């Protein structure tokens, strides 16, 4: 059922629809090399095949990981003899330097029009030399309605599909076929074909595909099973942003996807980061409970770990939020990196060695525990940045409000230089 022209491509209408960029490139016969980036089974190879079919150019398919430089040389020789060749290079993110160096002059001459296909983010995983000579287009999972069109075509096409077979596909079976494969049309069509060819006709000579038949024939697509894949990091990002945004149901959804991928390590690491980064001083007991929940999850493992994880995700979603802690340290780091340091004041320097007092180290240090309430006003920052302020407390929870009140009281007292005489010992 591979599309022969752009008109047969299902989905990706933002690229191949009437008036859209790939459609215009084909119509104007002004093809340029491009990279198609998206999940498996969503149409990357189909688009490449359809471009070749629409332009009548020779079409060759190689894999950057498994095919050799010699295979590329064969394609290049063909292009010299017959003109333009469209080369679909699967897993282009795994193209090594030797193959890349061979390809570059052929791309620049236009003899080879490269269509790279990858599931990895090309801005991260593909060499800049290749990126700079290609246009990058995102490919999206197909919608249910788009998948339905493709399945209907497969059932009715008697030349390339299953149209010659007397198939009856139940509605609930079709729904499962379309949803369980999560926008991966290749998996859906493979499952449909397996079901049709492995099911005996009934007494009416009908191949009846029921829900149970489709369930046995379709392997459910596990979301983000590749823990190193770009999409996996997108889910982790969405997980944190959902908690930060206090959307409990969205956070639980992304937690479920990470659990389904079996990535307990990423979940635990990210939850602790979220607790300190996004909840922080607004609700320190919730932060501690997040650490406890992570420890419990690590101790009991999956699937039971989902219970403490769910509890703490819900609490973090519904908790007051504050990022004043991370903002404070990042502000301090920014100043330090910019050279805003200065010399440590003499009274704070180490005085635990003979002769330190001769250097003036520690001589005028005021020991806070010698004063009422164990506090005394004195300068702690270097002279050149003595008025720096990194911490800006918020009022998003009673804990941070209390911290903020204390911070401003001490800050104001420090400015006034108020302190009392030390206790007599």
Strand elements, count = 7
Tell me the β content. 5-15%
Into how many domains do the coordinates divide?
4
Mean pLDDT: 89
- Ranges with pLDDT <50 over ≥5 residues? 418-425
Radius of gyration: 32 Å
**Second CATH tier, the architecture of the largest domain:** 3-Layer(aba) Sandwich
Largest sheet: 5 strands, parallel
Descriptive keywords:
8% strand; elongated; alpha/beta; 5-stranded parallel β-sheet; Helicase, Ruva Protein, domain 3; 425 residues; disordered C terminus; Zinc Finger, Delta Prime, domain 3
Describe the protein's architecture and organization:
- The protein is built from 18 helices and 7 strands.
- Strands 2-3-4-1-5 form a 5-stranded parallel sheet, with helices on both faces.
- Helix 4 (69-82) packs parallel to helix 5, helix 12 packs antiparallel against helix 13 (248-260) and helix 12 (230-244) runs parallel beside helix 14 (264-279).
- The protein has helices spanning 13-16, 21-28, 44-55, 69-82, 97-109, 122-125, 128-131, 144-156, 171-180, 185-198, 211-217, 230-244, 248-260, 264-279, 284-300, 306-318, 324-337, 398-416; strands at residues 34-37, 58-63, 85-90, 112-118, 135-138, 167-169, 207-209.
- The protein is α/β, with parallel strands linked by helices.
- Mean pLDDT is 89; it is low at 418-425.
- It folds into 4 domains: 6-138, P-loop containing nucleotide triphosphate hydrolases (Rossmann fold); 144-217, Helicase, Ruva Protein, domain 3, CATH 1.10.8.60; 230-318, Zinc Finger, Delta Prime, domain 3, CATH 1.20.272.10; 342-416, post-AAA+ oligomerization domain-like (Orthogonal Bundle).
- It is 49% helix and 8% strand.
- One of its GO terms (molecular function) is ATP hydrolysis activity.
- It holds the Pfam family MgsA_C.
- InterPro entries: AAA+_ATPase, AAA_assoc_2, AAA_ATPase_RarA/MGS1/WRNIP1, ATPase_AAA_core, DNA_pol3_clamp-load_cplx_C, MgsA_C, P-loop_NTPase.
- It comes from Limosilactobacillus fastidiosus.
- Keywords: ATP-binding, Nucleotide-binding.
């Amino acid at each position: 059922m591979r599309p022969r022209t752009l008109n047969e491509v299902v989905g990706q209408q933002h690229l191949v629809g009437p008036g859209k960029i790939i459609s215009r490139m084909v119509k104007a016969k002004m093809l340029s090399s491009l990279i198609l980036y998206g999940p498996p089974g969503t149409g990357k190879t189909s688009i490449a095949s359809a471009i070749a079919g629409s332009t009548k150019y020779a079409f060759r398919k190689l894999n950057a990981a498994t095919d050799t430089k010699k295979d590329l040389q064969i394609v290049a020789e063909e292009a010299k003899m017959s003109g333009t060749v469209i080369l679909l290079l699967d897993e282009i993110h795994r193209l090594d330097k030797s193959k890349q160096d061979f390809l570059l002059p052929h791309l620049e001459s236009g003899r080879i029009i490269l269509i790279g296909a990858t599931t990895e983010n090309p801005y991260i995983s593909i060499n800049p030399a290749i990126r700079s000579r290609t246009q990058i287009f995102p490919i999206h999972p197909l919608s249910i309605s788009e998948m339905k069109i493709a399945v209907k075509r497969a059932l009715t096409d008697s030349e390339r599909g299953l149209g010659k077979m007397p198939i009856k596909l139940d509605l609930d079976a079709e729904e499962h076929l379309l949803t369980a494969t999560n926008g991966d049309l290749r998996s859906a069509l493979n499952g449909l074909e397996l079901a049709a060819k492995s099911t005996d006709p009934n007494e009416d000579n009908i191949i009846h595909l029921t829900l149970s038949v489709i369930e046995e024939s379709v392997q459910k697509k596990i979301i983000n099973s590749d823990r190193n894949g770009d999409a996996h990091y997108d889910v982790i990002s969405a997980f944190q942003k959902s908690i930060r945004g206090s959307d409990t149901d969205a956070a639980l959804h992304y937690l479920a996807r990470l659990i389904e991928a079996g990535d307990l390590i990423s979940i635990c690491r990210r939850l602790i980061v979220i607790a300190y980064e996004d909840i922080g001083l607004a609700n320190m007991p919730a932060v501690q409970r997040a650490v406890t929940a992570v420890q419990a999850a690590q101790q009991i493992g999956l699937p039971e770990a989902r219970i403490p994880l769910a509890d703490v995700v819900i609490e973090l979603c519904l908790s007051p939020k504050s990022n004043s802690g991370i903002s404070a340290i990042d502000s301090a780091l920014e100043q330090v990196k910019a050279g805003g340091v200065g010399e440590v004041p003499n009274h704070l320097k180490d005085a635990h060695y003979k002769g330190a007092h001769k250097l003036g180290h520690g001589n005028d240090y005021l020991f806070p525990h010698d004063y009422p309430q164990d506090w005394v006003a004195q300068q702690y920052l270097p002279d050149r940045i003595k008025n720096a302020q990194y911490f800006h407390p918020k009022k998003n929870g009673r804990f941070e409000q209390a911290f903020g009140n204390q911070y401003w009281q001490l800050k104001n007292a420090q400015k006034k230089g108020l302190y009392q005489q030390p206790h007599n010992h």
